[in-house]
Write a structure and sequence with these properties.
five-stranded antiparallel sheet, 479 residues, Heat Shock Protein 90, rod-shaped, Beta-Lactamase
Length: 479
């Protein structure tokens, strides 16, 4: 059953249970020991009082001064002891076994023989009649009484009599109950403070485990890119487990990203093969129709005007189809001429009319200062397509920035605009032909750009958030 209980409750409950058991383990022996301590305390103090009285009664018994003896046993020798243990019943028995004086004369009349005052007194008389120089604790004579007998000795150790002290047993039972109440109150206060603290501490200990468990369940249900787990600081097992989990999630993220890239590349390649096949199949009859129209225009006689208009309309439509098909057949043909700084500046010149028409602020940075072993035509086409899209994306008086920075191994172009951001769905299908975009057109410009960058063994990436859309093209430079 416990295996089905969450650690959210198991750890705090375990700590709280340990606290309760520890408190009880301390309280129970303390209470049990208090009972025995109360008994020993009673006996020790009673015997001490008996010895004191025996010493004080010696002159009275030697001189047969009953009044002095009575004053002695009725005078409180230790007020603190009397307050704690109560006033005992004190009986002084002479050497002949008769009551000499007593603190309770009604029960123990003077001059009466002790053995004649009842069964208990008879047993006491029998016990103290045996010569003894040591005090005695008489247990078991009466379940309600604790009785101590202390002999009164002369200087030559002759027994002059015996001092009997009777204490009711409920005296130390009351002390025991009082101690139990104090210990129970102290234990209850301690538990009231420590159990909530233990519960909170247990929840704090269990918190990283619960968060890790939640993250693991999230991995099973959601992409790794959405999983986040803050590993606890430290070097304990939970911290190591959290760090290992984060490493595993990072690996899953890389695998998912690689899988997405592979799927995207395969999808684009499949689309490219399909469109190329379709384009070739369209080009053949298309070329024949355009040739027929061209032949008709050269050889026509006096054709009616509506026929010329119809032929012109057909020619424009077929020409538009041919241009679209040509875009689907884009192939990078490497040139011998290397990319120069003037090629980059030419792109800026071609872009200026569009920039000025929308009053766009253009931030331009050309880091190319010398020829680079890259085909100038393809690079110019990539930059022009991206920049035209960026200008089209911004509103009037918007901002477009272009930074072209070469290094020893690659050329990087970063095109940024502050227009409306792309949605996640648009970003996933951004480089597919005829994909949905924010602009008018066939959706072929970005696909062509992607094809050109891929054929140059480069890569193109897009990131978009409100107020910022960035395209980054990286092209390797051959040695």
């Amino acid at each position: 059953m416990l295996s089905n209980v969450s650690y959210r409750y198991k750890i705090p409950a375990s700590l709280s249970l340990v606290i309760v058991v520890t408190a009880l383990a301390v309280a129970v022996p303390l209470i049990s020991g208090t009972n025995e301590t109360a008994k020993r305390d009673l006996v020790d103090h009673a015997l001490s009082l008996g010895k004191t009285l025996a010493g004080a009664l010696q002159p009275a018994l030697l001189h047969d001064d009953m009044w002095q003896a009575y004053e002695t046993i009725t005078t409180p020798f230790d007020r603190a002891l009397q307050q704690r243990l109560g006033q005992p019943t004190i009986v002084v028995v002479d050497a002949q076994g008769a009551v000499y004086v007593a603190s309770d004369p009604k029960r123990f009349p003077a001059t009466q023989r002790l053995a004649s005052l009842g069964p208990l007194s008879s047993k006491l008389a029998e016990i103290i009649s045996r010569p003894s120089a040591a005090p005695m604790v008489l247990e078991g004579l009466d379940p309600k009484l604790s009785i101590m007998a202390v002999p009164v000795l002369s200087n030559d150790n002759t027994q002059l009599g015996t001092v009997l002290l009777e204490y009711p047993r409920d005296i130390y039972q009351q002390r025991f109950l009082e101690t139990v109440r104090k210990v129970a109150a102290s234990t209850a206060i301690t538990l009231a403070i420590l159990v909530p603290l233990g519960w909170l501490w247990g929840k704090q200990i269990a918190s990283p485990l619960l968060r890790l468990s939640s993250a693991i369940r999230q991995v099973a249900r959601s992409p790794a890119a959405t999983v986040a787990f803050q590993a606890p600081a430290g070097k304990d097992e939970i911290a190591e487990l959290g760090a290992t989990f984060n490493s595993m999630v990072d690996g899953l993220r890389e695998r998912e990203a690689l899988k997405e890239e592979v799927l995207a590349s395969e999808r684009l390649a499949a689309i490219g093969r399909l469109t190329a096949g379709i384009a070739h199949e369209i080009n053949n009859p298309l070329g024949g129709m355009l040739n027929a129209i061209s032949t008709y225009k050269r050889q026509r006689a006096d054709a009616p005007a509506f026929v010329d208009r119809t032929m012109a309309l057909l020619e424009r439509g077929l020409t538009q189809i041919r241009e679209t098909v040509a875009a689907l057949l884009v192939e990078a043909r490497l040139e011998s001429r290397a990319l120069t700084p003037h090629d980059i500046d030419d792109v800026r010149t071609l872009l200026l009319s569009n920039v000025q028409g929308k009053h766009v602020v253009l931030d331009w940075q050309n880091g190319v200062t010398e020829p680079l072993p890259l085909p100038s035509t393809e690079v110019r086409q990539i930059l022009l397509n991206l920049l035209l899209n960026a200008v089209e994306a911004v509103d009037q008086h918007g901002r477009v920035s272009s930074a072209i920075t070469p290094s020893d191994t690659e050329l990087k172009a970063r095109i940024e605009n502050d227009g409306a951001n792309l949605t996640d769905d648009q970003l996933q299908r951004l480089f597919e032909p005829f994909a949905e975009s924010r602009h008018k057109g066939k959706g072929l410009g970005l696909w062509m750009t992607y094809q050109l960058a891929t054929q140059l063994h480069g890569r193109i990436e897009a990131q978009s958030k409100p107020g910022q859309t960035v395209f980054t093209v990286t092209l390797p430079i051959a040695a």
